[in-house]
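Continued from yesterday's entry.
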Amino acid sequence: MTKQLLFISLCFISFFGHTQDSLFVDLSSPYGSIRTHLFYLQDEHYDEIKAAQPFIQSGVSEELAIKTAIQLKQAWDGEGTYITMETIPKDPNYRDSIRNRNQYIINEHHPAILLVKQNDQWIYAKSSFAAIEDFHDEIFPFGTDKLLQLLPKIGTRKIMGLYLYQYIGILILTLLSVLIHKVFSVLFEEIITRLLMKAGYEKLADHFMMPVARPISLFVVILLLRIFLPVLQLPPDTSHWVMLILKALLPLFGTIVFYRLVDILSMYLEHLAKKTESTLDDQLVPLLRKTLKTFVVGVGTLFILENLDIPIIPLLTGLSIGGLAFALAAQDTIKNFFGSLMIFIDRPFQIGDWITSGDIDGSVEEVGFRSSRIRTFRNSLMYVPNGKLADSVIDNHGMRQYRRFYTQIAVTYDTPPELINTFVEGLRKIVETHPDTRKDYYNVYFNDMAAFSLNIMFYIFFEVPDWGAELKARHEVLMQILKLGNELGVNFAFPTQTLHMENFPGQQSLSPSYTSQDEANQKMAAFFENQK
């Protein structure tokens, strides 16, 4: 009797135990299917056949269903995707309100992986199988998923929530990361630095390559961890935060690398700018460096926010609305910015040029994004908005090929005409022999009889690069004129007044006596006859 009761008790326990287990194979709702899939892949309840039930359907073998169920769980754990069961609908007739279908997308990051309702059962859509395989390959690139079959065999003892093989894997990744960091540091510090120094780029090697080497090595280390850490299959909550941090560090170090590379590019552009005659491109290089650095930081920030699962579309939308308000408030600043671009494109002047524009008169010292600095001849400094310069008429004295010099050389009225001719010829000879004067165009003529002098127009051009050279050339020419005048005995006139008395006792009258008209006509005819 006792044996019969024991047999009946075992059958009862076996029957109800089987019934209790079978209750977990629930495909009546999205919640039940996902719970069945994940529950039977846990170590305490591992049953891959039951876990594959939401995948089994027409045209899908049990082997493929088991493989796909395991791959999806591995990918979720490797990526750190935490499935919140409380948010999954338990309604057997659930409909997607957006798509108006009996389907449920588990994770918005992977919309192709979804559940659909077929014959009162919620199963994974057949189209999801390919998406799951792609998702698995993305999380485990280069065939790293094969390590999943090796690591659990090393140790299955659980210590403080982690298996022994996970601790061993963390130790191996740590040692490998340190080794790779050292290798890349040596690679950049020794090999590349020596090559650059042999090529004559010592400054580039000392000041720029070393700050770039370490962020690159750290970038490689983070990439290595990003590839191999999913193999450890850490707990979902731990894996989620670890992968989130790695995803944020990856663009962070990438941004640092490109930020430092901008300095290298700027140095190369600065080297090219020194080979050109224009000085404006020398000023353009620092502005370009600041712009590129701002762009790198902006783009890097967007990538970091995106990897932190912070939606950037609403952020960009808010920035666009705020940017419109900012643009209206700062339209003068924006106008000056575009004025700077027009100055760099049109190049109406360059650094060091003497320019005149309205009340502006001085030498250009610097062209910035908003304003330009003009050093006046009073040695004061003017900050002129570039928008104003772009809209103004600019007289660039620095772009002159020739610098005009005009003066009147005054000689006394008692200078004989023959001596004036000789003196004018000598002045022209001075122009032709001076090394800095324009030889194809100049004017030296006796052209005015002024109140107290006979004036010779002296109109020439100097071919010199700046004002200092022009002053030096003027000095040399004027000194030659004085020497020529002294050599020929030419007296230079200055303002004088002569008082004439008509009648003075004991003296002949100063009133002139004129010849008759006939005598004057005869003298004029003789004069022109001698000129032939």
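--- second protein ---
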Amino acid sequence: MEDAEYFYHPLENIEDTELFYEAVERNHLTKSISPERPYTYWTIELYDQKNGIRGGGGLGVLAADTRRVAEKMGIPFTLITPFYPSEIKQIYENGEISEQHIPVDYSKYGFKYCDKVNIKCHKDLCSLDVIEKRFKNTRIICITEPNFGELYSGLSGSDHRLYQEVSLGFGGYAALKLLGLKPAIMQLNEVATFFAALARLDELASNGMDFYEAVVYTRKHTLYTNHTLVQAAEAEFSREQFDRFVFPNLRSPAVRKWLSDKFTHDRIKLSSVTIEIAELRSGVSKLHTRVANYHDIAGNRVKFKPVTNGIDMDTWVLPEIMNFYRENEILDTINAPTNDYAEKLDSFTAETIKSLKTLGREILNKTLENRPDQNGKILKFTDNDFIFDFKRRFVDYKRPELPFSDLNRLRNILEPRGAHYIIAGRVHPGDDTMYKKLQNILKLIKNDDYLCDHVHYLADYDEKLAYGLSVGSNVAINVPIVGYEACGTSWMKDIANLNLLISTHDGGVADGPMSAYFCVNGASEEDELNILYQQMEDAISTWDNDFDLEFVIRRQLSAFLPIISGARMMKDYLDFLFPK
């Protein structure tokens, strides 16, 4: 342990030492991106059904979009993620949600087996398969094995969850070396990916680099992107768990000592060590970076750089709408808004908007052909049907139950227009609270003669249904409790697909002005409910008045096109990582 004591100094104090500054001066940073030194993007979740990987929500969708945007921009980019050999399909039958566990074969989606890498779990050697799929200038590298389980299998502080995260970090880093790649930058999406940066620090320190230089180098080349708001809500791991799953994979005594000192009462939060190992830290909307409550080990509040999420518009926007954007020079070749995009929005007339939405309605009907609602009915909508939708992960803070607080008021809004309300969202396995809320909503609907035929729950929410609703609905409902949504991207797809947006001023929506959309901003939940109902009524009247429709759609696009652009997001990351 003498060597460890010689090299070791607590990281929380390292900036107060001359050794740190000497290391900075000696260390020549080389973050330039190339095919051999790509931008590496680490995520525990990828939602990319086209490539056979089904995630759990927005984090995975964002990861898939980020890779696609990088490909369009010609950036050498490598995404590293687990490949889960089974996935959960949710089915609604006889008033109950059941789950099917479906095996997934990566070879059917163009992934090629590369080789195996090993990690250590206690005294055992665990063998992981490395699989890869290459694109033009990007690639997806996955680690997997038959017993890897499903995404988010087990509780967040469980052994199996830690095994998955350690496999991604140490196994994924070994996979990069196996394929001859060295990360120019490591973007860690959420704290579950911390072990990738730890693996890099350990490699540098155990291969002869001075420990201080290894720390500086790792920190300077690591970006931690936070997607959640409250550090206190994060699960913890025990020292005993780390002794079995983490420490056996570390070769450097100095790194072992550094990590050991991060425990408090034999417990550790991954956010604490991720903050310590990444000098660059970003949040995913402007509001998020203002309200995120994270502290480093010394107790100082952590500052995050706002890089608001964006979407890959070619994936999520109706092709005919994309053609219109490009032909009218609203978007450029990488789908970023042109310099004079706001003036060009005058080309959107009510006739154009409605004709484009007619094409989207056809896609929605096609999507619904094999997706019965809670009554077993296959839905088919005419061009004249008016559709509200709530399509997002079923969690408490998103308040899916809010519009059903006053059924008489809801009925009085929908009935004069013959409008429909579609609910689509996956209840996270084990979330009994939200399952009961969903059951209660469906019971209320069933007992109402009008609503039972005009409010529809669609189970097993996925990418295809998300796309169909984005292109085929009229109005999107997004009412999270303000301060709880980090960003969200479903609303971005609605804006781009010419839907009217009703939303609280939260997440990425708050990057734009309240006046740009139908804002729900009451001082209490009762106020918000009344405003929500009023905005639903206003949205219907807006859609039925050509002048108002043109004005509101142009206003939404003028405010939000730069915000929702995936190209803008990637440029913001590059400017942050490689400042001029």
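The chain has a mean pLDDT of 91. DSSP finds 22 helices and 19 strands in the chain. Will compare against the first tomorrow.
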